[in-house]
Protein: FLYWCH-type domain-containing protein
Amino acid sequence: MEIIKSNKQNDKICLDGHMYTLYYETSETIKWRCSKKSSVRCPAVLSTDKQITEYEKIHRHNHLPNRKEVMVTKALMNMKEKSSTTTTNLVEIFANGVSKLDKSAKAQMPSEDTVKRTLRNHRSKGNPIDPKSLEDCIIPHTWTINSDGHRFLLNDNGIVDENGKCKADERIVIFATDEGLLILLSLQLG
Structure:
């Protein structure tokens, strides 16, 4: 039994070539239903303890297990994780993810264009919305520091009012690292 994340970041259980999503919880157990409940009306239900260590199958599946589909789902989950936590090129993320699959699992993988579009969408979820005007251009704190926690936003002359709107007719925003400034300082012009 293995626990992975669903597209909505909920727990999903992989067991014996089948996948289960959360159905409901009681005070002592968690009920999971087959992920194919909607598509093939599968009645299968899995009951686990709260720690998800012990399980009992309650109803049988009305379809065969598909271990390759489980492998593809796990590969896609890993690709999404890499796309949102690294700046690695999406082509490289896709190639690395697919290279770990056997030939029959690769046949069940969505097309490269579909996967890369999904990865782009997943990566852009953390991006701020595109501002429609200078007033709407608010830089969240997470964009003012780099991945090491050092400052990245050196200057922003936009003044944010009590409504969260920026008040500036013209705006100067300077992004740089301290290390980059030291390199610039050390250069000899001329």
